[in-house]
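Database export, one record per block. Field names are fixed; values are copied verbatim from the stored entry.
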Amino acid sequence: MTAGSAVVSPDSPPAFGNLHAYSDEIIPWIRRLTDDVHEHGAACMIQLTHLGRRTGWAQDEWLPALARAPLPEPAHRSIPKEAEDWDIGRIIGHYADAAERMQAGGMDGIEIEANGHLFDQFWSPLTNHRTDEWGGSLENRLRFGWEVLSAIRRRVGTEFIVGIRPALDETIPGGIDAVTGAEI
């Protein structure tokens, strides 16, 4: 597993030196990496993410941080723009585009980094206060994740590994607890 999470969208400014999985320019570099790993008989995967509110805006494209709600993020102090329906649809497509790029670069699979990133910012009742089809009930809060995973699977087929790294217990009152984490 590599990358420590590569960002899937330009509106997910890299906060940790993240790779830009949203650009076709990454494919030859990924191919170089995977060829070297495969030469030694090992499989190679990469983490993909949209950081959501877990970033700041003043980097790379200088686009606003985008999240499921405009709640401040403690570590980076960003106040994200609330994702509108068209943003959500676009980001779902960006995840699928990035997975397809990683497949073109020779990766054996991807892992969605959900823990603290946009994926579980939708899941968590602490960070998802939406009242539309993307918030409220657990089924609605999981909708974004299901849409992303479905779009990725349609794009990369069934032989490409697709995993997820979730937070199964946020250990914060009102957040995802162990029971909800197991249900997720």
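Remark 1: The longest strand covers residues 2-7.
Remark 2: Residues 8 and 22 are 5 Å apart (CA to CA).
End of record.
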